[in-house]
Structures are given as C-alpha cells and as structure tokens.
Amino acid sequence: MGRSDVLIVGAGPTGLVLALWLARQRVKVRIIDKTDGPGTTSRALAVQARTLELYRQLDLTEEILAKGHKVPGINLWVEGQKKARVPFETIAEDLTPYGPFIYPQDQHERLLIEHLEALGVSVERSTELLGFSEAGDHIVATLRRPDGQEEPCEANYLAGCDGARSIVRQTAGIGFPGGTYQQVFYVADVDASGPALDGELHVDLDEADFLAVFPLKGEGRARLIGTVRDERAAQAETLKFEDVSDRAIQHMKVRVQTVNWFSTYRVHHRVTEHFRKGRVFLLGDAAHIHSPAGGQGMNTGIGDAINLAWKLKAVLAGQASDALLDTYETERRAFALKLVATTDKGFTLATAEGWAADFIRTRIVPIVVPTLFKFEAVRGYLFSAVSQIVINYRDSAISVGRAGDVKGGDRLPWAPTPGVDNFDTLRTIGWQVHVYGTPSAELDDWCKRQGLALHAFAWQEAHAKTGLLRDAMYLLRPDTYVALAAEQQDPEVLSRYFMDQGLAQGQT
Predict the structure, then answer these.
(1) Selection from 75, 81, 51, 78 nearest residue 64 by Cα
(2) Does domain 70-98+178-270+354-391 sit in CATH 3.30.9.10?
(3) pLDDT digit string (tens) for 119-139?
(4) CATH class held by domain 400-500
(5) Which residues cross the membrane (predicted)?
(6) I want to staple 228 with a disulfide (CB 3.0 to 4.6 A). Which of 184, 267, 269, 427 is the partner?
(7) Angle between helices 297-316 and 13-24 (to 10 degrees)
(8) What contacts 459, CB < 8 A, 6 or more positions away?
(9) 448 C-beta neighbours (distance < 10 Å), count
(10) Where are the beta strands (DSSP E) in 136-254?
(11) Domain covering 3-68+103-176+272-342, topology
C-alpha cells in the first residue's frame, strides 16, 4: 500500500492549486477526482488581483494574462438605456499590478493540470473516496478505482477539496451551517451581438431581477447571469434559455446567435464549523459557499490552498510544529465568515424586492456609484475588497509587530519605483526579509548564516506612501504575507520569532 504525504480529494481549481504548490515544494501528493475529466463549462470567471499576485510563484500569471480578458469598465442600465459607466482602466493604480480580469474556469483548470503534469503529478480520474479513518500519525482511506475495485491508501494528511457536498466533510462529521437564498439563478454562455457585447461588464438595474452580461475573450462571447422569479422558479430544473431570455433581449438589446451552455442553480451561504479536524483539512466550497457577488468563490478556495500548502510542507519537513497547521483554520475561517457576511449584503441589495429597492437601484445607484468612483479613496477601498488584496492575518498567532503602517499579517504593499518592482522577489516560495533602505551588516551576516534571503531596496518616497518604514525589517512568509514587522534591524528579533513560533530558521 503506497503512502503519500497529502491525499487531495477533488480536482477543481482549489485541489489543483494545492497540489501544484505542494509538488513545487517537493511534497509527495496524490490527487483524485470522481469525475472522468476536467470541467467543460466556464463556471467561475473572475481571477482576482491577489490570485494573480500569488500565481507568480508558479509562473502562471503571465500565461493567464495572455489568455484571459481584462475588463475595462462596468456599465449600468435602466429601462433599456445605458445610464452610467464606471471605468476600470486605472482602478488598480498604485495598489497592485493587476486589474479586474476574466479567465473562465474550464480553461483555468486545464492550465493548472498542464503545470501539475509538468511536475510529474497526474489527476487520478474516476476515482472516488469511499471513507477514511485516522490511524495515529496518518490517515487510512478507501478509494474506488475506475474499474470498480476498492483500494486502501495511506497519507499523512487528507485535504477535502471536493465541493459543497464534500464526502470528506461529511465523513469527518463537521457541521456546515447556513442557508439557501430563495432566488433561482440562470447562467448562459452565448455568442451574441449588441451594445452590451463590447468587452465590458454590463448590469441591468431594473426591477428586482438581477441581470448581468460578463465579457469573455473573443468577439461576441459573453456570459449572461440572471434571476428567475414568478412561477418559473418552481420549474427551475426543466427551464430552457428561451424561458428566461426575454429580459436580456429586450432590456439590454442582446441578440443571441448561439447558446453554448445553460444551467439554473440556487445560491447557498454556509461556512463549515471547522477547517481542520486532526489530520483532515477542508478547503474551497467544502469549507465555505456564498453568493457569487464580486466573483470571490474560486479565488477564496485558491487562497485556502496557498495558505495551507506552505504550512503542510514546513510540518512534513520537520521545520515547524503541528501548531502551525492550526493557524490555517484561524486565518482562513475568519476571512470566510467575513466574506459570507459581505457578499450576503451585496446580494440582498441587488435582488431586494419592493418599490423602495427599485427606486434605489434605478434612480440612486446610477448617479451615486459613478460619482463615488471619482474619489481615489473610494475606488481603492472597493477594489481592494473585491480583489482580495485587503485580506490580512493580523489576528493570527504567527503575525507579530508593526513598522510604519504595515503590521504582521498584512499583505506586503506593492511599492514599485523606477526600474525596481519589490514584488519581483516574490516569485519564489520561501521565507525572505525585506529592508526598504540600508540593511545593517549584522542583519546581512545573520541572514547569510541562516540561508535566509535578504532583499534591500534603495529608499524612495514611493515606499513611504504605501506605509513602509525606512530601514525597518519585514520578514515575509512563503505565501508573501508579512510574518514579522520590526522597526529595528535586530537579528535577535528574527531569531526569537522563529524560536517562539516553533519554526526552523532559514527555511527554504
């Protein structure tokens, strides 16, 4: 019976990213999926800026940017007329290298699979997890192979990336509290023409039905997402595109030539009670599901995977104690709870019924939203939230200190200067130290002795504008979040941090 370091159940984006990050760190992984092939429908569309930042560690970002579609702006429609436009061209300026971006999930999965196979790991298809139990220092699982035969297998850890109906979560006996929205949604990928097929995002604010046209790469390609109301909602399983397309055709003048995919679904909002139970971890939709408002779902699962991957590697390599794995739940569950609450408010506003809600959407929103977006602070706040660059782990047990406006647990600010991009050092997976100013000889010597990368950036006023402090010391985790921020360059502070956290110094 073979044994892997980590058995991953589910080969959607979350499972594939976890496998990629682990394989890149030379962790022995096995990834299974009960389906016979990757997804063939676009499903999730948005790839948020924080995901693109982190994808640089796997050389994925440039390829995705070349294959996907940058969204130039969003247009708001009322009574069949385009009433307002919010430009996105400069929305990410000074915050991140990446703006709003679309790359359909089916293409996304295929790209992840290609990169995973290049590392010598293949998804085991038509392979189902039947059950598992914890046996001391490992997990014993039972799999059903494609030929119907059952196979026992062992792994040090089990990662449930198997979706909202997760067999891993159910077998572990972890609750999944929450509820289901009453609205029925439809989604259709189409080839079409009309003013709303111009490569931008278009949203119809009329009445209480939500309707949006999302651009896909290629002329005349788009995704329509809308709500289904009245008596049709009761027959959601049997609806066809023709049953729900009137509004898109009449209100937004969409002329559909071909429907490539159509489906209906209900939206849930749930967060699992625990992200970790012993040697079992839950990630992605197995741990949290919520409304699609803001395109957060897939990106949140990917964030789960990256957060967990470096911690599993450290523990498996004997570079950290088991306590490090507890921070996965404390960091990611806190974010999931906040995200579900936020998307719930946005979803409720977009779909609320009644004259007051209609008045706000059709009369107030088209005036107020473009006006607010003229203010840099508002643009930055909203984009930071949606793009997930605002995520921080300040309350984590492994987040320590403050220097300038940057605290332990923060995402490192993007602070490019002419000819120098401080994010260029973040293409590797490992611990590193940043100094914006002049590093001391003592710090340089300590880092060399510990095998810890030290990156120094000549001080510029641009650094101060992002909240960084001159000559301060920033220790970055392998997922590029700030672990320790200290005003003084004292190697003893670094040494004490690693010791207090049970981490080996100078990890790679």
Answers:
(1) 51
(2) yes
(3) 999 999 999 999 999 998 999
(4) alpha beta
(5) none
(6) 184
(7) 30
(8) 436, 437, 438, 470, 471
(9) 12
(10) 138-144, 150-160, 178-193, 201-204, 211-215, 221-228
(11) FAD/NAD(P)-binding domain (3.50.50)
